[in-house]
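Action item from last meeting closed. Structure (176 res):
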């Protein structure tokens, strides 16, 4: 593998990890908090519509969190729009997969829409990380990169649903 290919693979892995991190935090996973007080970026500027778990994970003070908002003021709004579009495209794909009468071309086109929506979100998150990391302390930047690396590593795990015996309920069957 050439150096250029390794760099491209590394950047793709970073983007995948970043997207996984942001998606995980946005669906309600509670991050470990280094400080007892939660910093809510929504209180710091009109561009932020929700509390940013990342500020808590990194242990940002309110002043530091404000700098992060100012470094990329459109991120929360744009990321929310991109997440909603991705969810919509996935929902449409799920519907097509459940219907028996769709052509291969129809399914392929919807898969491409899901890929494009995911790509747009990953790229936006990567731009956000690059915009804010230069304002972090070395320990905060190390924590951020560690969280991203964790997300990259966990992105390869696959989960599927399978039926449990007898009860009719479903259980998660995740491979590690």
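Sequence:
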């Amino acid at each position: 593998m050439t150096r250029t290919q390794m760099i491209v693979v590394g950047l793709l892995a970073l983007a995948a990890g970043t997207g996984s991190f942001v998606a995980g935090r946005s669906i309600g996973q509670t991050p470990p908090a280094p400080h007892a007080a939660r910093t809510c970026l929504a209180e710091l500027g009109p561009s932020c519509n929700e509390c940013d778990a990342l500020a808590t994970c990194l242990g940002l003070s309110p002043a530091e969190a404000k700098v992060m908002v100012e470094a990329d003021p459109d991120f929360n709004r744009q990321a929310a729009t991109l997440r909603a579009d991705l969810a919509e495209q996935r929902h449409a794909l799920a519907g097509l997969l459940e219907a028996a009468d769709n052509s291969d071309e129809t399914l392929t086109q919807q898969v491409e829409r899901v890929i494009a929506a995911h790509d747009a979100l990953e790229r936006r998150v990567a731009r956000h990380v690059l915009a804010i990391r230069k304002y972090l302390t070395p320990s905060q930047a190390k924590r951020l990169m560690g969280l991203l690396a964790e997300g990259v590593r966990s992105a390869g795990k696959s989960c599927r649903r399978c039926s449990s015996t007898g009860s009719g309920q479903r259980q998660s069957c995740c491979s590690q």
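Note appended to the action item: The beta strands are 158-163, 170-175.
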